[in-house]
Every structure is written in structure tokens, then in C-alpha cells.
# Entry
Amino acid sequence: MFTLAYWRDLTERMITTAAAAAVGALGGESFNLWTVDVSQVTGVALGAALVALLLGLAGRGVGDPSTAGFTNHRKTNT
# Structure
């Protein structure tokens, strides 16, 4: 169950979730690099990555064993 493909998929899910959460934490208003609360954005991103990790661990063995998801759908390279 803990194959290299599984860990790659889980890592990708964690990184993309953390990045999306960080962008969301920055807000939809104009972005000013000098006024960003880095600790808040980092905390939100790490919290989201933790949730993605827990979901990936919970999904192991439920769906396709080579992914961290709950479904049996495999990724295809097109």
C-alpha cells in the first residue's frame, strides 16, 4: 500500500493543497509583499497540507492503492 507512486501522489496533493490555501489566505484584494502576514499564510498552508495528508492516509486501501484518493480512478498520461 505504501508504494513510491502512492507517496508521490500524496506529496503532490499536499503541495497543491498548501499552495491553494496560501493563495486563499492572501485574499482577493491587491497583493502587497510588504504587508503580508507570513506567519498567518504559512499556518493556513501547513494546516491545509496536514488535512491533505490525513485524507491521503485515510484513503489508502480504499481506492486505487497507487494513489492517495478514495476512488479507483487511475491517472492517465495523455
Observations:
- The mean pLDDT is 83.
- The longest helix spans residues 4-26.
